[in-house]
């Protein structure tokens, strides 16, 4: 197929574009003429060619990952108005998106398999299903056919080779993201290991990679509401085809919709690879904690989006003698080693963290991380070249004017928020002052405990421990949490979010549960806990101070991992025994009794709700050991 006007820009160098008639020729010619193109393996070239034929870009840019390349892209985005500089900090930028493109769109996210039940449980009652959206091969092709042809017309197509996990590690996976958004390129260069070195690994015979095609698109009308942030919100769609390790995302430039290494590769496609290969790809932070005796363990924790992973991963313990170090804040890939130890890597290279609520008092470590080499999105800006969001120190506002995330002048009396609730910072992980020394260890870190949790204003105690592995799997399966701004759900309803993976499962949740249960046969499984920092009193106030004081909960968990008998049985699981939770030195009075109170009425309703959910959403796919855990819980609650 002949493609006119396809030009090639050698990445990082401001060389004059060359015209070719045929992209195949371009690739062949480049492999001779340009060093970078030579490093594209035949399979990568073939994929790039296919994308060119489909999307018809004006130019091609193969990313090398260099600083010079970033400078080039920043200059381009400045010119297009996509970003503005933040001169108060070093190499920091602010992007304001189209207000219709501010979060993940779960309703427009699909997994494509031959049969529906490979993607989601198919049950008579599941209308609609809430554990993912299935799409047929034909419908996926049609969706692509209706959107992608010519979608990059007039734009540059960027080819981003990236590694999820340390480059070359046995546990890492490679992706090639093709995108028409320079903002995505800059963000991917922070969030993943991207550039030349990844192509070298592919060249060394590891030809496997996940195909990630992304286009911000153009509305059917042909008119962009906000030219500085092109997108097509009406027709946004995010497609995954696990059998081909392929992702196609159209219409959104935001976060998990467009940075395809994150949720699309590391979780949705990742979970299907993990199932095949016998490991776990999870929506979990990883932290190292050292106790006052100098002993260190690693903990992984799954909380739904905007429920506290980044904050826990970087916390500053208020308990004397404890130290927390951060391995990752969002995703964990965990695999048993030959000795049966569960080892985890953080496949990411940066943090895409929620800005609102981040402050010196809640997360000083994040504040020490994010004010250099960072791209902020949808936060407010200040007239002295800085940023502002809800929860940040207000004292600084006395001497500046504030422009909100929509670009309008803002004041504290405005009666609206300055920053979008899902506004974020995108910042390199190695800038974190407490990044763990082993965070890039290709072997991963040993995991001693797994935490599940969510926003539960009522009924659920601060912490409890699973009785055994199957009970722990049941705790993950029955997780619920208040909806947040990370996706399009509006009301503050309590949603089921099993394993914090509801928006991220790559295959049938019933099979996922069976896979989790099978881990017990593969090695030494960690202890499992459920935590809830968000229980509220009758007057609507948080009962627990949270943040650094969550170290008090980690202390109890640490002692349980060490085998200390500091627990008592309860109908829902093991609670700290009387006085076992260290509350000494807490600044405010905490009503420990109310924090741990168990109500028979509440737990009867909760178990009924879980039963209903399993029946409607999981049906016959629910593994028997999980069903048995629910029956046992019901029986214990009945005796309360
Ligand atoms: P994603 O990046 O969307 O996956 O979110 P996350 O799980 O990393 O959530 P994050 O740590 O960014 O926290 C989200 C919001 O919850 C922020 O506004 C925090 O200030 C708030 N938060 C985090 N930890 C606590 C806590 O212990 N107590 C209370 N009350 N709020 C918290
Ligand atoms: C989440 O929503 O869980 C996130 C943010 O971590 S995003 O990358 O947009 O998915
Ligand atoms: Mn997340």
Automatic annotation (TrEMBL):
Residues 279-636 form the Phosphoenolpyruvate carboxykinase C-terminal P-loop domain. Its EC number is 4.1.1.32. GO terms for cellular component: cytosol. It catalyses: oxaloacetate + GTP = phosphoenolpyruvate + GDP + CO2. Residues 46-275 form the Phosphoenolpyruvate carboxykinase GTP-utilising N-terminal domain. Keywords: Decarboxylase, GTP-binding, Lyase, Manganese, Metal-binding, Nucleotide-binding. Its cofactor is Mn(2+). CDD domains: PEPCK_GTP. It is an enzyme of class 4 (lyase). GO terms for biological process: cellular response to glucose stimulus; gluconeogenesis; glycerol biosynthetic process from pyruvate; oxaloacetate metabolic process; propionate catabolic process; response to lipid; response to starvation. It holds the Pfam family PEPCK_GTP. GO terms for molecular function: GTP binding; manganese ion binding; phosphoenolpyruvate carboxykinase (GTP) activity. SUPFAM superfamilies: PEP carboxykinase N-terminal domain, PEP carboxykinase-like. Monomer. Catalyzes the conversion of oxaloacetate (OAA) to phosphoenolpyruvate (PEP), the rate-limiting step in the metabolic pathway that produces glucose from lactate and other precursors derived from the citric acid cycle. HAMAP family: PEPCK_GTP. Belongs to the phosphoenolpyruvate carboxykinase [GTP] family. This is Phosphoenolpyruvate carboxykinase [GTP]. It comes from Drosophila lebanonensis.
């Amino acid at each position: 197929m002949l493609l006119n006007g396809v030009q090639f820009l050698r990445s990082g160098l401001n060389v004059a574009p060359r015209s070719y008639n045929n992209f195949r020729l371009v690739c062949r010619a480049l492999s001779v003429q340009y060093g970078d193109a030579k490093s594209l393996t035949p399979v990568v070239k073939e994929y790039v060619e296919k994308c060119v034929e489909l999307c018809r870009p004006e130019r091609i840019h193969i990313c090398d990952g260099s600083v010079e390349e970033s400078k080039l892209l920043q200059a381009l985005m400045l010119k297009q108005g996509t970003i503005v500089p933040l001169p108060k900090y070093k190499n920091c930028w602010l992007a304001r998106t189209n207000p219709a493109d501010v979060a993940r769109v779960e309703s427009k996210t699909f997994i494509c398999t031959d049969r529906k039940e490979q993607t989601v449980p198919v049950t008579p009652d599941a209308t609609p299903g809430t554990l993912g959206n299935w799409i047929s091969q034909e419908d996926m092709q049609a969706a692509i056919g209706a959107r992608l042809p010519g979608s990059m017309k007039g734009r540059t197509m960027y080819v981003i080779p990236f590694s999820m996990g340390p480059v070359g590690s046995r546990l890492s996976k490679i992706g090639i993201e093709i995108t028409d958004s320079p903002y995505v390129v800059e963000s991917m260069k922070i969030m993943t290991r991207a550039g030349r070195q990844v192509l070298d690994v592919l060249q060394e015979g590891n030809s496997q990679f996940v195909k990630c095609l992304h286009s911000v698109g153009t509305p059917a009308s042909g008119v962009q509401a906000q030219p500085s942030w092109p997108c097509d919100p009406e027709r946004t769609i995010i497609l995954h085809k696990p059998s081909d390790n392929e992702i196609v995302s159209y219409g959104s430039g935001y976060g998990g919709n467009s940075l395809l290494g994150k949720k699309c590769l590391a979780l949705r496609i990742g979970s299907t690879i993990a199932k095949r290969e016998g490991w776990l790809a999870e929506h979990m932070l990883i932290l190292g904690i050292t106790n006052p005796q100098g002993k260190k363990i690693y903990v992984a924790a799954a909380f739904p989006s905007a429920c506290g992973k980044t904050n826990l991963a970087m916390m500053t313990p208020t308990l004397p003698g404890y130290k927390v170090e951060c391995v990752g804040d969002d995703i964990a890939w965990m695999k048993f080693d030959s000795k049966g130890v569960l080892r985890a890597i953080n496949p990411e290279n940066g943090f895409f963290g929620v800005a609102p609520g981040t402050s010196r008092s809640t997360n000083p470590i994040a504040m020490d991380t994010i004010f250099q080499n960072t791209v902020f999105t949808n936060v407010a800006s200040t007239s002295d070249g800085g940023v502002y969001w809800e929860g940040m120190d207000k004292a600084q506002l006395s001497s500046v004017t504030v422009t909100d995330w929509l670009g309008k002048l803002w004041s504290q009396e405005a009666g609206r928020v300055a920053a979008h609730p899902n506004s974020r910072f995108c910042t390199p992980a190695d800038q974190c002052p407490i990044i763990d020394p082993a965070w890039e260890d290709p072997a991963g870190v040993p995991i001693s405990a797994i935490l599940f949790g969510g926003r539960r204003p009522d009924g659920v105690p601060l912490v409890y421990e699973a009785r055994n592995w199957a009970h722990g799997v049941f705790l993950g399966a029955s997780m619920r949490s208040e909806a947040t701004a990370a996706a399009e759900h509006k009301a503050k309803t309590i949603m089921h979010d099993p394993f914090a993976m509801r928006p991220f499962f790559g295959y049938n949740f019933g099979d996922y549960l069976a896979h989790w249960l099978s881990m017990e046969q593969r090695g030494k499984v960690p202890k499992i806990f459920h935590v809830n920092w968000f229980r509220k009193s009758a007057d609507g106030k948080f009962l627990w101070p949270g943040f650094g004081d969550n170290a008090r909960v980690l202390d109890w968990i640490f002692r349980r991992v060490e085998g200390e008998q500091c627990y008592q049985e309860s109908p829902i699981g093991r609670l700290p025994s009387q006085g076992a939770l260290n509350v000494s030195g807490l600044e405010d009075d905490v009503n420990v009794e109310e924090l741990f109170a168990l109500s028979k009425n509440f737990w009867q309703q909760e178990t009924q709700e879980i039963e209903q959910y399993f029946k409607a959403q999981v049906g016959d796919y629910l593994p028997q050991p999980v069903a048995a855990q629910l029956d046992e819980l019901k029986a214990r609650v009945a005796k309360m």
